[in-house]
Design a protein that fits this description.
By secondary structure, the chain is α+β, with helices and mostly antiparallel strands. The protein has nine helices and 17 strands. It has a nine-stranded mixed sheet. An eight-stranded mixed sheet has the order 11-12-13-10-14-17-16-15, with helices on both faces. A hairpin with a 6-residue loop joins strand 12 and strand 13. The longest helix has 15 residues. The protein is globular, with a radius of gyration of 20 Å. The two termini are 22 Å apart. The structure holds fe (ii) ion (FE2). The site of fe (ii) ion (FE2) has 6 residues, from strand 10 and strand 14.
């Protein structure tokens, strides 16, 4: 399949000189799920996470239960309700399992809250100090698209297992599976309603000082049936990157519309997790039963592929065997692959990505990828 990479355009209009919101990285991603106890084992056995901390009735927290899962610098929190009146239960009832919080690691959660709310961010949680024997953590939260929030986390005075209230989780009868090489959260993608992409682009620019590092129009990202538009917002050091998608007019229902319908609103579409060795990571994920989107064999037509991406260090045979995609941008190349949704609703999924210099998102793969998603939509009767 001959693909021309969509030319990325950088919009510098929104750049801000002063970084009023320094961010060290993603602190954690919290999911509200129907059954955190079982979901924790899914992430442990399929994706190689260790379950390291727990908060619930046994630790004095009666509103909900949470498990902390860790793999290198990736921290996921899985939270479930203990009763129908909980906001966690309401969230799961409406959205299914999904991302509630993309928490950001900062040095000053009070200042982060003040700077962002002064610029128009919607406040969700005033700066709150949590303390236990291990020290103190300051948390504050602001709203973003849908029911999703960003929590600012200052953990500089804390040396406990996660947050005050969490205790180490252990199960003497369980040997955790080995990690699969996932290193850190590379980017988190949001899906928003038609006409709202620029609203959130402006929101991240205004209230968080993010800049628009890339834009893709519907002519860059379209298939025979459906189209979408996407803009990528990034913080100053580019450790935080939020592509935001909205559906565009197409002949049939786009994957973004399918998401919005099943998630009942805007929310996180996928989380990209970085690895240093995508071949071994994906081989192991496949062995453990992680289901990935199927890429047609024609994608690996050597002439077309090499023409598009040039020299790469990996064997194309390995990429083809594992269904890994390649793309190149001016800074280097990247390897990526996308899972099937990880819950019954066709909503949240994962990307596994290895960057060999490239700073972008695989625009040259968008068409092949979206056609693969459409084949799955078709099977679900949602195209
Ligand atoms: Fe991505």
């Amino acid at each position: 399949m001959a693909e021309t990479p969509a030319a990325p355009r950088t919009d510098t209009d929104l750049e801000t000189a002063e970084d009023f919101l320094p961010i060290n990285g993603t602190d954690y991603v919290e999911f509200y799920v129907g059954n955190a106890k079982q979901a924790a084992m899914y992430y442990a056995h399929l994706f190689g996470f260790s379950i390291t901390a727990y908060r619930g009735p046994e630790t004095g927290h009666r509103e909900s239960v949470s498990y902390l899962l860790e793999q290198s610098n990736v921290h996921f929190v899985l939270t479930s309700a203990l009763g129908p009146e909980s906001e966690v239960a309401e969230h799961v009832h409406r959205h299914g399992d999904g991302v509630k919080d993309i928490a950001l690691w900062v040095d000053d959660a009070e200042k982060s809250f003040a700077e962002t709310t002064n610029r128009g961010a919607e406040a969700v949680r005033e700066p709150t100090v949590l303390e236990d024997d291990h020290g103190r953590v300051v948390l504050s939260s602001i709203a973003t698209f849908g029911d999703t929030v960003h929590t600012f986390v200052d953990r500089s005075d804390y040396d406990g297992p996660f947050l005050p209230g969490f205790e180490p989780w252990d199960n003497a009868f369980w040997t955790p599976p080995d990690p699969v090489g996932l290193q850190y959260v590379d980017h988190c993608v949001g899906n928003v309603h038609e006409g709202e992409m620029d609203t959130y682009v402006q929101y991240y620019a205004d209230v968080m000082g993010f800049r628009n590092m890339l834009s893709f129009s519907d002519s860059d990202i379209s298939t025979e049936y459906s189209a979408l538009m996407s803009k990528v917002m990034a913080n100053g050091n580019e450790r935080i990157k939020f592509p935001i998608n909205e559906p565009a007019e197409g002949k049939k229902k786009s994957q973004i519309e399918e998401y919005l319908e099943f998630y009942r609103g805007a929310g996180v579409q996928h989380i990209a997790l970085a690895t240093d060795d995508i071949l071994s990571t994906v081989r192991e994920l496949r062995r453990r039963g992680v289901a990935f989107l199927h890429v047609p064999d024609t994608y690996y037509d050597r002439d077309v592929l090499f023409d598009r991406v040039g020299e790469i260090n990996e064997n194309v045979e390995d990429l083809e065997e594992l269904g890994i995609l390649v793309d190149r941008d001016p800074d280097g190349y990247l390897l990526q692959i996308f899972t099937q949704p990880v819950q019954d609703r066709p909503t949240v999924f994962y990307e596994i990505i290895q960057r060999e210099g490239a700073r972008t998102f695989g625009a040259g793969n968008f068409k092949a990828l979206f056609e693969a998603i459409e084949r799955e939509q078709e099977k679900r009767g949602n195209l």
